[in-house]
Specification:
Blueprint lengths: L1 H27 L28 E3 L5 E7 L4 H16 L4 E7 L10 H12 L4
Parallel strand pairs: 2-3
Antiparallel strand pairs: 1-3
Length: about 130
């Protein structure tokens, strides 16, 4: 009987502390994605991508249509995508320009952040 009293003396305060902590966390809870009313949603046309004069441009700079491409120099699928860009530029030489934006996501086997910054430097030197 003595052991039971000692166990209750230890576990009851521990359980009360745990319940109090959970209660405080439930009160502090904020949803990760709060619900938005229909009137408060942003219009999708409000989204803009900044285009800088230092961004590499493939094709005619005066072309009426612009493709903004986010790619990584270390990505195999981005390499395949580059051949599609070349076909588009050969088929429609005066209709499209492609603005390349670096998106360095590849980290294995090598981190490509430095290679992407080198590409911007080469573009500034007109070597791209």
């Amino acid at each position: 009987m003595l052991k039971l009293r000692h166990l209750l003396a230890i576990f009851i305060p521990a359980i009360l502390i745990i319940v109090a902590v959970f209660f405080v966390r439930i009160i502090q809870y904020q949803p990760l994605y709060p619900k938005q009313s229909a009137g408060s949603q942003k219009n999708i046309t409000d989204f803009t991508i900044p285009i800088f004069s230092t961004d590499p441009v493939l094709g005619d700079r005066q072309a009426p249509a612009t493709l903004i491409v986010f790619s990584d120099l270390g990505c195999a699928l981005c390499r395949e995508e580059f051949s599609i860009w070349q076909k588009i530029l050969k088929t429609y030489p005066k209709k499209f320009k492609i603005i390349w934006k670096a998106l360095p996501v590849t980290q294995i086997p090598y981190d490509t952040r430095l290679a992407n910054s080198y590409a911007y430097c080469a573009n500034e030197q007109k070597n791209l």
